[in-house]
Write a structure and sequence with these properties.
Length: 356
């Protein structure tokens, strides 16, 4: 029988649990113990859930509504939140809670990391992408004109709540976006994920299905194992960026109107092509990328004329060292590695696979 709540521990200097289940409100009071108040950040679609979370915390709650999706992930919105915390005498024992998808949890985490140089933070993730990725691992931040997530901090949460019931109201396209990160985990570390998606593509996006729950838990375990040993991305953690170098460049070019998971999906095709064309990845595993992403309906192509702009945007990727572009590639299924300083002609040939 499926357990009511699955606890996945994330190790490191400040270990914490990621809870996956249904109706997790009862787990909140222990995470905010000692707080005189909490601040609950949310965007309009999650108001009702934010109010439930505020009630469940068991201490007075300051509800802060922020703009939805990427529009909320800005320095200006973070400053609005800081002002609000200041007005309410928010102290070091108080707790910031983020209720929403990855955009709200990234923002709330950054507000918590920067307020008084760091207060407790609890992400209550309501999107698939947030559960399997954004809420886990302590990467917090906002976007700026120069690029995606360029301002932020590593700030591990006190605990993470992933209430699967919230997926019932998540728009189908956002669920699909989350599946891109799940599939990424399949390619870099856990091929059973790929088997499950290929065998049951409909169940993989059905919030009531045990298949989706298994995918959520598997993807969280992949991330937990990585960030537990390399919080600050000094090595191993880079593998979680598979598909993101081009993905973030697409998001920037689209002025953050594309869903992150959709951009990552296209980025996975590019990263796989780079792996294959540099002689590191076999043709079968390379072809499997397009096949599984298209099976579930994720995008796998992008505009040919965008290449010069995308190449420029990729130069400010966080994995770049001096002027050397670095990409996460595969040396085989579940064997991630780094490709540093590829020839521009190789990059162009890989991008040609994205435009077809
Ligand atoms: N910190 C990290 O490690 C990390 C990892 C992956 C992604 N991210 C970031 O996460 C963001 C993407 O997250 P996302 O895909 O969750 O997008 P999102 O947060 O923009 O949410 C997508 C949409 O779904 C709505 N929504 C969320 N949950 C809902 C629910 N239960 N019911 C109804 N509507 C709901 C949101 O309000 C929004 O309109 C990006 O900014 C990305 O950079 C961060
Ligand atoms: O947690 C990580 O590390 C990741 O790279 C996970 C990514 O899915 C995520 O989108 C992350 O926010 C990207 O981080 P960035 O440092 O490239 O902005
Ligand atoms: Zn991502």
């Amino acid at each position: 029988m499926t357990p009511v709540v699955t606890r996945i521990q994330v190790g490191g200097d400040r270990p914490y649990d990621v809870l996956v289940g249904r109706d997790l409100a009862g787990d909140l009071p222990s995470l905010v113990e000692g707080a005189a108040q909490v601040a609950v950040l949310f965007a309009a679609p999650l108001r009702a859930r934010a109010e439930q979370v505020a009630e469940a915390a068991g201490v007075p709650a300051l509800l802060i509504e922020v703009p939805d999706a990427e529009r909320g992930k800005t320095v200006e919105v973070a400053a609005m939140c800081w002002d609000s915390l200041g007005e309410h005498n928010f102290t070091r024992t108080d707790v910031v809670i983020g209720v929403g998808g990855g955009a709200v949890t990234d923002l709330s985490g950054y507000v918590a990391a920067s307020w008084l140089r760091g207060v407790r933070w609890v992400p209550c993730s309501t999107s698939l992408l947030g559960m399997v990725d954004a809420a886990v691992g302590g990467k917090t931040g906002v976007n700026i004109a120069a690029g995606k997530n360029l301002v932020g901090a590593f700030h591990p949460p006190a605990g993470v709540l992933c209430d699967l019931d919230s997926l019932r109201t998540l728009p189908a396209d956002d669920l699909l976006a989350g599946l891109a990160e799940v599939i990424k985990c399949g390619f870099i570390a856990d091929p059973v994920i790929l088997d499950l998606v290929e065998r049951e593509p409909a169940a993989a996006v059905d919030p009531e299905s045990p298949v989706l729950r298994e995918l959520v838990e598997r993807a969280i375990r992949v991330k937990a194992e990585v960030v537990g040993v390399d919080l600050k991305e000094s090595g191993l953690r880079e593998i979680l960026n598979y598909g993101h170098t081009l993905g973030h460049a697409i998001e920037k070019r689209e002025k953050y109107t594309w869903k992150h998971g959709h951009a990552v999906s296209v980025g996975l095709i590019f990263a796989s092509a780079l792996s294959h064309l540099s002689g590191r990845l076999d043709a079968e595993t390379h072809a499997r990328h397009r096949a599984v992403l298209e099976l579930v309906g994720l995008p796998t192509s992008y505009a040919e004329e965008a290449w010069p702009e995308l190449l420029g945007a990729m130069r400010v990727d966080k994995k770049t060292r001096a002027a050397t572009l670095r990409f996460v590639v595969l040396d085989g299924l579940a064997k991630p590695g780094i490709l540093a300083g590829p020839e521009e002609s190789l990059l162009e040939r890989a991008y040609a696979e994205v435009t077809r």
